[in-house]
Specification:
8% strand, DNA-binding, homodimer
DNA sequence: CCTAAGGTTCTCATTTTTGTGAACTCTTTT
DNA sequence: AAAAGAGTTCACAAAAATGAGAACCTTAGG
């Protein structure tokens, strides 16, 4: 039934970015990495909850295409309100933190 | 120069909510509490960085009134993109987590 | 082969968030 | 007292996210 496509996009993205060794522009990618991480987390939580995109969509009160969009690593439009809705639907809560900017510098 | 109004709103909000003993509807407030927390954190980070709303606004690339809005505990429109901009301006990074819904139940 | 489930992508109307300036309060400084 | 600095609030235009349906791909099953 399902496709063997895990969170392929997110992974692929993280890989290509991290391995690329583009260390000088890491900061620029930080933003995109956060998006990819969120996408992956949503995917993870959804599948672990045994839900299809359709199923989660119903719980959240939106459409499958909207869920799909959220699980796209390239999606840059995450809002806190949506994350909260997702979390609630999966019996989780969202926590936001401001941590010191990681500057691994020369790895 | 400044006003002696700390993060009064955030505090007031958290107080009134927590102390109210409205324990049966805590979940409903969870959402609002997150907003209040974000507002407080932004205020905290900004002042600790020795910046005025105007100063932070310039770094972020927006107006003082926009910053003021973000520090309002009742503001419900936080977007991840804005939080990332704020974080970047303050040399921080945003971390999002989905934690198990806290159900302190009968405290 | 045909069908259905799960997922992806596209488009577009609607809703929400952001940007901005103005007006106002309070406080400190000159 | 007047002016300037910091913060708040309001209103409205501009930009961005969401809602939703349709079309499409792929795999699993009958």
């Amino acid at each position: 039934m399902a496709q063997k496509k895990f969170h392929s996009k997110a992974s692929k993205f993280l890989y290509s970015r991290y391995i690329a060794g583009d260390s000088k522009r890491e900061e620029e990618y930080d933003e995109e990495i956060i998006n990819a991480e969120i996408a992956r987390k949503i995917y993870e939580l959804r599948t672990k909850a045994g839900l299809t995109q359709q199923g989660l969509a119903e719980r959240v009160g939106t459409s499958k295409s909207a869920i799909c969009r959220l699980e796209d690593a390239d999606y840059d439009g995450h809002s806190l309100s949506m994350l909260k809705r997702i979390a609630e639907a999966l019996d989780k809560r969202v926590v936001i933190r401001f941590l010191p900017a990681k500057r691994p510098r020369t790895a």
